[in-house]
Amino acid sequence: MARNYVIIGSGPAGITAAENIRKLDKQGGITVISAERVPMFYRPRIPEYAVGKLEIEELMVKTMDFYDQERIKLQLGVRAVKLDKERKFVETSEGKQYGYNKLLIATGIDPIKPPYPGEDLKGIFTMHYLYHADQMRIITKEAKEAVVVGGGLLGMDMAEELKKAGLEVKFLVRRHVLGDPFFDEYGCKLIQEEFTRVGVNVFTDTEVQAFEGADGKLVKMLTKDGKQIESSFCFLSIGAVPAVNWLQESGLKIDKGVLVDKHLQCSEKDIFSAGNAAQITDPVSKKQIVQTNWFNASTQGCIAGNNMAGGEPIEYKATTNYLKKVGQLSFNLIGWGNAMVEMGQRTYFKGDNPGEYVMITTREGVIVGAVVCGLPKTSLKLKEVIENQRVIPNLEKVIALKEGQLATLLKILS
Questions:
Q1: Of 19, 125, 251, 315, which has the maximum CB count within 10 A?
Q2: What is the rounded CA–CA span in Å between residue 257 and residue 247?
Q3: For the packed helices 12-24 and 294-308, what is the interaxial angle rounded to 10 degrees?
């Protein structure tokens, strides 16, 4: 009898899993349930779409022909609201029940609800579903200025793209330094300089207290330090969490995300999780973390799909590898990245080009994390070294000082 696979989520984890299931199981039924109203799109470029730089066709990762050819049924615009693991079905917001033999939870993340009075005024935008970007496209065409609230990675992207679209941009950042805590001190300095170069006005140590409006429309923002910033257009991005609230009464083991083992299987047989909803054990830090990036989500989806369909069991061994571009800068955050490591040592390696450097973190003579700027081949090499915890000959001599020559690091890695 043919198996029935149900996948909750149409992002990189969910669709990559469906694709790999079909490679191994030609007869099984595959149903993808997603709250998103359109099929899988390349979410990292949604800020470009929101300002009108890209058209919808350029965002799509797969054509509709792909889903037809692979016999993947899409149930879009509906949300999973209940899991009954005893009777093995998922119930949706439409009241329909989908039975499964194997289930994948790949629901991604939900934005944190803004805690500010007036956050529902017209002119305030968040970015999660594609229709949010559709709404922003309309406003961006007419607007002359915008305020971006939230100094995270999405906030940086939107501030940059709105400026490129010709708007005057005020960027409100709660922390003392733009880029913290994602990037190291030197990286934050470069990022601040890059935003200054492109003409974005960055206000650090600035936190919104409330929004005020007239006739239901945004007029100004009040900050905790007493500033009043007038604007009718605000993009708000203050973080996100794994979209797992609907599973709280399911009986699955959940912490920040759905806890999974090395095969990405949950605490319950026949249920797997991947992507931003899954909490994996990082092979380097040995901590249970959620890896919130496209590369890791796709890799997890590939492995989960294989293991769900009965392929030769594959363990998930990839450490975090986050690619982030800021203007002319390109960063890779690998392993521990910029996180502080107990008993760890940081060493910088810089060359003649200020936009190229490596910051590595070592512990007991082994590299456990890196921030790499402008050196893609070096990033790949460090990812392999960090994931395999490979011992590098003569590394202890190189890291004896807090700062060394970039050429020296590149030589011992080769």
A1: 125
A2: 10
A3: 30
